[in-house]
Amino acid sequence: MPNIYDISMTIEESMQVWKSYEAKKPKISNVQNHDEGKPHESLLTINTHTGTHVDAPLHMLPGGETIETIGLERLVGPARVLDLTHVVGSITKEDLVPFAIQPGERLLFKTASSLSEDFLMEFPFLREDGAKYLADIGVGLIATDALGIERAQAEYPTHRTLMRADVIIVEGVRLRDVKAGNYTLVIAPLKLTGIDAAPARAFLMD
Asked: Where in this chain does the entry annotate a coiled-coil region (predicted)?
């Protein structure tokens, strides 16, 4: 049996969310229970960009494709974890060139965000030039351990550059206990339709 690394966030009310906004935290409430003589059931209220999730182009591109258009075959297969824990501020083309990235690769960025369970306001993000470099190579998927793949860039050029190049964006993976290297990646977003993202269970196998 291969080693399995669960790289998805646990959905709970106390979890980290974008900029720690209270309104973005999931809400879990009991709607019926055994004390009432009924089966126990809960109601989950959740933003589609909560925790580990897959972005659809609609998130950033007017008229963009919705989450159900992303085939599972694109979310399962060989992948490589890149150790970028030394990067401060932004991930640039210069940071990525040494990895000799190939067309079609699925890449997971391990940054300082994996080392904290709190939202880092200054999390390392993929800068526009890095996104263009990866889009020009033709990578298939980029997963980052922050809850966003970019920040502090007007007009969201990282998202839009990748989405226009048909690169899948996954945000909020957990890589603290995962070493750099090659793995088999499995990402299973909730089977939703017509919307901009879906929370997902994600794991790696070595």
From this structure: none
